[in-house]
Amino acid sequence: MGGYEERILVTGAAGQIGSELTLELRRRYGAENVIAGVHKKMPKEIIESGPYERIDTTDISGIRACVEKHNITTIYHLVSILSAAGEKNSNLAWHVNMTSLKNVLDVMRERKEKGYTAKVFWPSSIAAFGPDAPKDNTPQDTVMHPTTIYGVTKVSGELLCNYYWLKYGVDVRSVRYPGLISSMTHPGGGTSDYAVEVFYEAIKNGHYTFFVRADTVLPMMYMPDAIRATIMLMDADEDALSTRLSYNLAAMSFSAGELAEEVKKHIPGFSYDFRPDERQGIADSWPRIIDDSYARKDWGWKEKFKLKEMVSDMIKKLEPSLKFS
């Protein structure tokens, strides 16, 4: 691809995005060309499908050693403390989210200066916007005053990535992910976790208590679409990109109540209620509907899954393993 052999490192390869992205990248580029960077958890599918390295991304020497050992050309840097978890330990969230990103950027800047290919993908989030941004059709460029430490690290990260592109020519690309829904991994401390938890509880126990109000609307995306969008952006022609901050990315927006009713169509005995907790305030500070027209225009983004198709596919994938567990 692009006249060179793609050698990829995925940091956070055991996480919600990383576990599926790593497997897809291995399918596309060959297992031997995709190194899974893991810290503690070691998913069986990741270990058995290709090479891996234990990496603490807050230690730049470990990243540098891995990049040099494997002649890495591209890093998908996915290590992050998520929104709800970050509010419980803001110092840890800042340290992990910001130190690890700067380490990755510095290592790839060094590679660039030595004449090597140096590309980076880093995920931002709708958490970057905050309560002052327009809630509906939130534009690509608007006021960004987040009120969570997670959101603060995302805005800071976007600016840092843009700086490394402008100052050092590191080919950094990013999207603002909406809430992500995955059938492969359990929730990891995010505010949109209810959109995943509901499937597990509906199938196993027939009941779920949402931790947000029924009328809570957030932008969401099914993981297969998120993986496809990520690779589409990284494959896009450099000249087509109109921003190096982070692209808005969207697929669907629905309320917690609408999600519950769609799940109930597949599991007729399913019951649910709503007991908002501290995560409601975070959800209320985020956009409801995202304008991702830049991504659609610049690199041809278009989702495949809406609410109905996503719910059907999630239940089809989860039901066989959960129903009798």
Write the layout of secondary structure elements.
Layout (H helix, E strand, L loop, with lengths): L7 E4 L4 H14 L4 E5 L5 H6 L2 E3 L5 H11 L3 E4 L5 H6 L1 H24 L5 E7 L23 H20 L2 E7 L1 E3 L12 H12 L1 E4 L6 E6 H13 L11 E2 L3 E4 H11 L4 E4 L4 H6 L8 H7 L7 H16 L3
Parallel strand pairs: 1-2, 1-4, 2-3, 4-5, 5-6, 6-10, 7-9, 8-12
Antiparallel strand pairs: 9-11
Helix pairs in contact: 1-8, 3-5, 5-6, 7-9, 7-12, 9-12
User: What would CATH call the class of the largest domain?
Assistant: Alpha Beta
Average pLDDT figure = 95
Low-confidence regions: none
Predict the CATH topology of the largest domain: Rossmann fold
Quickly count the helices.
12
Main sheet properties: 7 strands, parallel
Describe the structure.
It is a single chain. The chain has 325 residues and is α/β, with parallel strands linked by helices. It has 2 domains: 8-178 and 223-229, Rossmann fold, CATH 3.40.50; 181-219 and 251-322, UDP-galactose 4-epimerase, domain 1 (Alpha-Beta Complex), CATH 3.90.25. It has helices at 16-29, 44-49, 60-70, 83-88, 90-113, 149-168, 194-205, 223-235, 256-266, 279-284, 293-299, 307-322, and strands at 8-11, 34-38, 52-54, 74-77, 119-125, 171-177, 179-181, 207-210, 217-222, 247-248, 252-255, 271-274. It has a 7-stranded parallel β-sheet with strand order 3-2-1-4-5-6-10, sandwiched between helices. A 3-stranded mixed β-sheet has the order 7-9-11. A two-stranded parallel sheet has the order 8-12. Strand 5, helix 6 (149-168) and strand 6 (171-177) form a beta-alpha-beta unit. Helix 3 (60-70) runs parallel beside helix 5. The mean pLDDT is 95.
